[in-house]
């Protein structure tokens, strides 16, 4: 009883003190001093390196949040500034996690070729990907199953399949741009156009005509909701009860139901003669006899849709922006179109695409300067030493590769920030001779020391590269044959780093004039 009385009296005195302005100032200043002392202590604690062999750490003022703000404003500048102070390997803190970035070609090689027992991609990406893709595929299964899934997918990306895709992509492109002003031209929303065109062409070719037919209505909205749940925030905060999370989960269920219905219809009608990827995914079994179910096929198709969409649509947008900025290159590109096709209206084929070297180099150069993926993560499962140093990266950290650092390095590319597709005519890609097969076909073994790695390397290397090139080349070929283009008075847009995939700052408009 006495305790309660004392407590009440104490609270009354405190309340009295708080409402007295003189006391309030005193309390606030004590509080301020307290906070400063804590912040200084945090700084000192950061500098006492408990683990002598740990890589250098970027200091920060705000506990938990760490360097999150300066990193997300411009990760490339953040890496560049800190690289000057600490070298190629250093650790920064973001949202309570430690990231050790490994720059340079040795850094790329270290991350991409790290051993399965040492690091894990799924531990890094799972919170983001599993709710969107669904269970049992990609990062929600053991790595050996992912390797087999990549093999299943590659069967839908053969040259025979590509032969069929090229005319479909050209047709989709011509159809799409009917909505632009084809008499006098105008200003077009390039980013929106490329986003819609890539989803239309990818669904028509890989996912099949049934799903393409639904793309204008239901599926496009579902895709939009899934995309809203595929953002950096989803990676850091798994359980936030945000409306976007509910929309994401709802969209996932509905998307799977739509894909499932298409599969069931094909089965009911005994369809076996289709050559698209959907048909190949309907008919797969793991090596150990485990069936790859229709549900797995639906989830893998959602994953492919997400993996290919922003990567390809931002690349198409940047490539056309670079062409608009460089009229001389655009002119040469149109000449190449005439040379290879005979005339600007001749129908495009896969063999034509293979002969368009400058077009190939325009895409290669765009991906060197504006790769959509600038950070590749693996979670460290047991302490690993960075080769050639004493640095031991502790278990629980994430290691990060950022191949864009070498892609814009003067050491490897003269006038590194200049858009010059011709530079690729003289670059001989390093050939080490050795190849590795992780289960989805042979890839270059020493490839991770290549300074340009927009598609990654090692066991997690992209399997969509060949498809992306076919799709991008067919879209850009058709586009530049239809229109002459130039930048608006706003010039080249900057980069928005707050999205999962780096994209131009919106809106992106372009001036276009029909070629006739
Ligand atoms: C310009 C277009 C593209 C770029 C720049 C790109 C880039 C990348 C990169 C950097 C990785 C490695 C990720 C890591 O190591 O953590 C990757 C993996 C992958 N990509 Fe792509 N990609 C593109 C298009 C596509 C397309 C069109 C598809 C499918 C249709 C696709 C499917 C995949 C898959 C399945 C993986 C494997 C993930 C893993 O094994 O962990 N990508 N991509
Ligand atoms: C598909 O095949 C099954 C078994 O061979 C047969 O019973 C069924 O009638 C066929 N369906 C159609 C639509 O042809
Ligand atoms: C599965 O593959 C086998 C062998 O290639 C083929 O005969 C069969 O028709 C395929 N089934 C479906 C549903 O595509
Ligand atoms: C597949 O078979 C159906 C009926 O058996 C036929 O109508 C269709 O044209 C065939 N498609 C291809 C791509 O061969």
UniProtKB/TrEMBL annotation:
<dbReference type="InterPro" id="IPR036396">
    <property type="entry name" value="Cyt_P450_sf"/>
</dbReference>
<keyword id="KW-0503">Monooxygenase</keyword>
<dbReference type="Pfam" id="PF00067">
    <property type="entry name" value="p450"/>
</dbReference>
<keyword id="KW-0560">Oxidoreductase</keyword>
<keyword id="KW-0812">Transmembrane</keyword>
<dbReference type="GO" id="GO:0097038">
    <property type="term" value="C:perinuclear endoplasmic reticulum"/>
</dbReference>
<keyword id="KW-0349">Heme</keyword>
<dbReference type="GO" id="GO:0016020">
    <property type="term" value="C:membrane"/>
</dbReference>
<feature type="binding site" description="axial binding residue">
    <location>
        <position position="462"/>
    </location>
    <ligand>
        <name>heme</name>
    </ligand>
</feature>
<keyword id="KW-0408">Iron</keyword>
<feature type="transmembrane region" description="Helical">
    <location>
        <begin position="24"/>
        <end position="42"/>
    </location>
</feature>
<keyword id="KW-1133">Transmembrane helix</keyword>
<dbReference type="InterPro" id="IPR001128">
    <property type="entry name" value="Cyt_P450"/>
</dbReference>
<dbReference type="GO" id="GO:0006696">
    <property type="term" value="P:ergosterol biosynthetic process"/>
</dbReference>
<keyword id="KW-0479">Metal-binding</keyword>
<dbReference type="GO" id="GO:0032541">
    <property type="term" value="C:cortical endoplasmic reticulum"/>
</dbReference>
<dbReference type="GO" id="GO:0008398">
    <property type="term" value="F:sterol 14-demethylase activity"/>
</dbReference>
<dbReference type="GO" id="GO:0020037">
    <property type="term" value="F:heme binding"/>
</dbReference>
<dbReference type="GO" id="GO:0005506">
    <property type="term" value="F:iron ion binding"/>
</dbReference>
<dbReference type="InterPro" id="IPR017972">
    <property type="entry name" value="Cyt_P450_CS"/>
</dbReference>
<keyword id="KW-0472">Membrane</keyword>
<protein>
    <submittedName>
        <fullName>Cytochrome P450 51</fullName>
    </submittedName>
</protein>
<comment type="similarity">
    <text>Belongs to the cytochrome P450 family.</text>
</comment>
<dbReference type="InterPro" id="IPR002403">
    <property type="entry name" value="Cyt_P450_E_grp-IV"/>
</dbReference>
<dbReference type="InterPro" id="IPR050529">
    <property type="entry name" value="CYP450_sterol_14alpha_dmase"/>
</dbReference>
């Amino acid at each position: 009883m006495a305790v309660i009385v004392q407590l009440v009296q104490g609270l009354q005195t405190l309340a009295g003190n708080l409402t007295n302005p003189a006391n309030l100032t005193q309390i606030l200043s004590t509080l301020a001093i307290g906070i400063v002392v804590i912040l200084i202590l945090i700084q000192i604690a950061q500098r006492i390196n408990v683990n002598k062999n740990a890589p250098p750490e970027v200091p920060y003022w705000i506990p938990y949040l760490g360097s999150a703000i300066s990193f997300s404003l411009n990760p490339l500048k953040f890496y560049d500034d800190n690289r000057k102070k600490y070298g190629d390997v250093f650790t920064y803190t973001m949202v309570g996690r430690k990231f050790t970035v490994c720059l340079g070609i040795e850094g790329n090689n270290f991350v991409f070729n790290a051993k399965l027992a040492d690091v894990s991609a799924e531990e890094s990406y799972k919170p983001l990907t599993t709710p969107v893709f669904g269970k049992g595929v990609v990062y929600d299964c053991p790595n050996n199953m992912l390797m087999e899934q990549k093999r299943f997918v590659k069967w839908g990306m053969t040259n025979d399949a590509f032969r069929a895709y090229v005319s479909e992509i050209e047709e989709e492109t011509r159809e799409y741009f009917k909505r632009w002003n084809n008499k006098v031209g105008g200003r077009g929303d390039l980013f929106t156009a490329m986003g819609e065109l890539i989803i239309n062409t990818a669904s028509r070719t890989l996912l099949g005509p049934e799903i393409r037919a639904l793309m204008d209505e239901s599926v496009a909205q579902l895709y939009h909701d899934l995309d809203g749940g595929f953002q950096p925030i989803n990676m850091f905060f798994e359980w936030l009860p945000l409306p976007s999370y509910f929309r994401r989960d709802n969209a996932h269920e509905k998307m799977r139901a739509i894909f499932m219905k298409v599969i069931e219809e094909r089965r009911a009608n005994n369809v076996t003669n289709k050559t698209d990827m959907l048909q190949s995914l309907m008919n797969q079994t793991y090596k150990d006899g485990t069936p790859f179910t229709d549900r797995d096929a639906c989830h893998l198709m959602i994953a492919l849709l997400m993996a290919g969409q922003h990567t390809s649509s931002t690349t198409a947008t940047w490539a056309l922006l670079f062409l608009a900025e460089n009229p001389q290159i655009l002119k040469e590109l149109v000449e190449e179109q005439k040379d290879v096709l005979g005339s600007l209206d001749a129908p495009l084929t896969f063999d034509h695409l293979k002969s368009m070297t400058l077009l190939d180099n325009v895409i290669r150069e765009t991906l060197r300067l504006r790769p959509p993926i600038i950070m590749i993560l693996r979670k460290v499962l047991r302490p690993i030493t960075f080769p050639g140093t004493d640095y031991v990266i502790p278990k629980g950290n994430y290691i990060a590769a950022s191949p864009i650092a070498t892609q814009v390095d003067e050491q490897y590319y003269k006038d590194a920030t200049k858009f010059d597709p011709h530079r690729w005519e003289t670059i001989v890609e390093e050939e080490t001779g050795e190849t590795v097969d992780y289960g989805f076909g042979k890839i270059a073994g020493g490839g991770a020391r290549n300074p340009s790695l927009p598609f990654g390397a090692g066991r997690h290397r992209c399997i969509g590269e060949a498809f992306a090139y076919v799709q991008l080349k067919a879209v850009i070929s058709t586009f530049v044959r239809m229109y002459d283009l130039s930048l608006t008075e706003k010039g080249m847009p900057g980069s928005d780093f707050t999205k999962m995939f780096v994209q131009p700052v919106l809106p992106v408009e372009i001036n276009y004039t029909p070629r006739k």
